Amino acid sequence: MGLISPARKGNSPHSPRLYSDSDIERVIQIRNLMQDLGVNLAGVETILHMRNLIEQMQIENRERLEQVQQQMEQEMQRLQDQHISETRRLKGIIERLQHDKM
Q1: Alpha-carbon span 46 to 87, nearest angstrom
Q2: Please, what is the Cα angle at 52 between 71 and 43, to 5 degrees?
Q3: Domain range summary for the chain, segments of one domain joined by +
Q4: What percent of the chain has pLDDT over 90?
Q5: 68 Cβ contact partners less than 8 Å away, ≥ 6 residues apart
Q6: What local confidence, expressed as pLDDT, does residue 39 receive?
Q7: Residues sharing a CB contact under 8 Å with residue 33, sequence separation 6 or more, in sequence order
């Protein structure tokens, strides 16, 4: 079923398996789902697959949020620069009008 995929030490199929911390965490999750909740292997596979999809979607959403925040910051800076430019332009017009009145 392939619920975990440990690395092998060597190229032979008889080489010892090397379990990472994430492999061990996954085994614990599988055991908890099966023993504590009574989920069968097919259900475990579905649950773990859905968890992976959710995690991937969360990563993509965070990345998209960061992009949108960056775009908003750039737009705010552009608007601030435009505001400063317009304020200076209007100040110049007012000063010329005041000077012309004198």
Answers
A1: 60
A2: 150
A3: 18-100
A4: 74
A5: none
A6: 96
A7: 39, 43, 44, 47
